[in-house]
Amino acid sequence: GRRSLGQRVVEELKHYYNGFHLLWIDTKVAARMVWRLLHGQVLTRRERRRLLRTCADLFRLLPFLVFVIVPFMEFLLPVFLKLFPEMLPSTFETESKKEEKQKKKLNAKLELAKFLQETIVEMAKRNKADTG
């Protein structure tokens, strides 16, 4: 059913609170990783990816804060998200958006695999025709 305006506002506030909280936790972890890097330790692949994602999220946070701080600007947020889908920091994404991104990536990988498979089949046919 439909939710009241008050319920939707509370849900959005909870979403933003959780997003900022997760970003704060990621920032603390990234600061520890930078400290380790500065002291000569090597990061694992997973840690390096997390550090890069957190840095990117912090840079994405600046334009996003304009929508949060300026009154009534949040009404334009859906328009800007449609124009710039990667504008939100990763901690602010909903589960449906994450699933949608994963599906797009999977479809792209499947298309690439099909293309490569067709290319290999064509190359095998050419090699067979050349030798036989």
UniProtKB/TrEMBL annotation:
Transmembrane regions: 58-81
One BP term from GO: intracellular monoatomic cation homeostasis
InterPro entries associated with the record: LETM1-like_RBD, LETM1/MDM38-like
Compartment(s) where it occurs, according to its Swiss-Prot or TrEMBL record: Mitochondrion inner membrane
Superkingdom of source: Eukaryota
Domain Letm1 RBD: 43-128
Membrane topology value: Single-pass membrane protein
GO CC annotation, single: mitochondrial inner membrane
Keywords: Membrane, Mitochondrion, Mitochondrion inner membrane, Transmembrane, Transmembrane helix
One example GO MF annotation: ribosome binding
PANTHER family: LETM1 DOMAIN-CONTAINING PROTEIN LETM2, MITOCHONDRIAL, LEUCINE ZIPPER-EF-HAND CONTAINING TRANSMEMBRANE PROTEIN
Protein name (record): LETM1 protein
